[in-house]
Amino acid sequence: MSNEDALKAxxxxxxxxxxxxxxxxxxxxxxxxxxxxEFSIIKRISDSISWSHDKQRICTxxxxxxxxxxxxxxxxxxxxxxxxxxxxxxxxRGQENHQPKYFPPASKRQRKMKIGEGAAGWVAEHGTSxxxxxxxxxxxxxxxxxxxSNQIQSLLxxxxxxxxxxxxxLNLSHPDIGAFSQENERVLQLITDQxxxxxxxxxxxxxxxxxxxxxxxxxxxxxxxxxxxxERYARAVxxxxxxxxxxxxxxxxxxxxxxxxxxxxxxxxxxxxxxKDWLKLIHPEDRQNLFRRIMEQLSRAPHVYEGEHRMxxxxxxxxxxxxxxxxxLDDRGRVIRLSGSNTDITQRKQAEIELQKAQETSLAxxxxxxxxxxxxxxxxxxxxxxxxxxxxxxxxxxxxSRSRIPLLSRAFTLLDANSGNLVEFLTQDAKGSKLPEYLTxxxxxxxxxxxxxxxxxxxxxxxxxxxxDVIETQQTHAKNNERMEAxxxxxxxxxxxxxxxxxxxxxxIRIQRNYRPIPKVTLPTSSFLHVLxxxxxNAIEAMEECPPNRKILQLDISEEDNWVVLxxxxxxxxxxxxxxxxxxQHGFTTKKYGHGFGLHFCHNAIxxxxxxxxxxxxxxxxxxxxxxxxxxxxxxxxxxxxxQEPLTSRH
Length: 651
Known about the structure:
It comes from Acanthopleuribacter pedis. InterPro entries: GAF, GAF-like_dom_sf, HATPase_C_sf, HATPase_dom, His_kinase_dom, PAC, PAS, PAS-assoc_C. This is histidine kinase. One of its GO terms (molecular function) is protein histidine kinase activity. The chain is of the alpha+beta class and 651 residues long. The chain folds into four domains: 166 residues, Beta-Lactamase; 106 residues, PAS domain (Beta-Lactamase); 116 residues; 160 residues, Histidine kinase-like ATPase, C-terminal domain (Heat Shock Protein 90), CATH 3.30.565. It is built from 18 helices and 19 strands. The C terminus is likely disordered.
């Protein structure tokens, strides 16, 4: 090889090395430019962290950055709402708007789309990127009504993620087909990663702000409540209603505030701070076992004693106190101190006593009215039966008065007069030949009248038996008065039906019974029967205007969880919703001439027996059900003074 050839070969080698270095340099330079661009993007987004509390600036900066750094012509940022049901448009920039626009929450221009709807909705639902090179060939793309939407040919959507969830979607579009590539997606992924960090910081900041606002509100409310409590306490102390004390357990030392002593009419020096002196002022019945009751309550968490007792005022009258004390424990959990307050509740106690007296008076009045209604009901039913008997008797009298028997007497007179030639008389005589047919016809009429008389006599007997049963039932239960007896509620129900039977028949009411086996219940028989009669009477009256096919009285008796339950259901006028809560109040009635005692008596009587009564109704003209529940195994308090035990102290 000549020197010239060797020189050419060396030159070619150097040229190849130069080109290789140039290519490597160009590649490195391009990579460097990309890295610089990436760092620029990261820095630009990271700078937004310093104003992460400004949602508008975050959203507009993100779309601004994408339009500046990518080939996208249009960009919109969508955020998922708190319920995660919609994507909400937050900001946008594109061909129509060269400056980014921000859409505040609940603004008129704000748009939203369901998660799963369109390309952005699909990305929000699946949490992965979506590249559509030609939207005309995609079934996912859903155009939004705008000028730009009609020009879109390619689309790239990326999810923005933070804290493991999709926070929003970046929606990029271009008027050319295939405008986006995998390289665009890589750069955009970098942007969305940084955007996710910034948005996460914003949402965290928003949560912290919300938490702080709620915390400040709670602190404000508690501070206000504390101030109000302190003001109430100060007013109560100033009004002489509350006084404090402090007792060192195991000693006789007891601090009593001067105003508490004053509540009992004593000056501070008149009562020493000695427990013995204070105990002397407590009513003997309430003083009994006081320490045991206190220690029983203090032995259990939260180590607080609460109770009521009477104390003697200096002038001899009784003052009622509500006492509350909180324990102080030592290191071993033992009670070493008890601090608390006495609140004067005398007025409340007096009001309770007056209310109890009023209730007892009302109950006694209701019992009196109930017994009167019972007797009136019995007399009314007997009067109805007697009226029916009178009607039947008049009919019998009318039937007898038009009897054909006198006609038979005249016929027999003719037969007696012609007894000597009877055959000739019956066959040849003008009158006698008609006599056999006449006797047959009159005999048929008499036989028919006789059968009708038999039926009427039986009907009168039934009425008489019914009157006797009603009177016997009334007398039996009247003798029992208020005596407590074990009774079968099903039998008492039948007794009440018997007393109301005439009214039931008068209105053609059908009775449907569903009696299940039940145990006996201890109750005051007469009062309970009064209740049943009252409820049945109301049910009958409620169905007076009902069509015949609806006049059904349903009676259900069963045992449910140690309660005997009686349901009385009618198909009558029903109970309006606005009347339901007042049904058992004294004086309430919907009847034209009602006095409002009946259901009030029923309610008071049943509650005094330890039971309960309530009413249900689908509404007006849809019938009603009265549900009466009585305990099977419960001692019922006596209702007569002679049955009550003397007052004793029980705690």
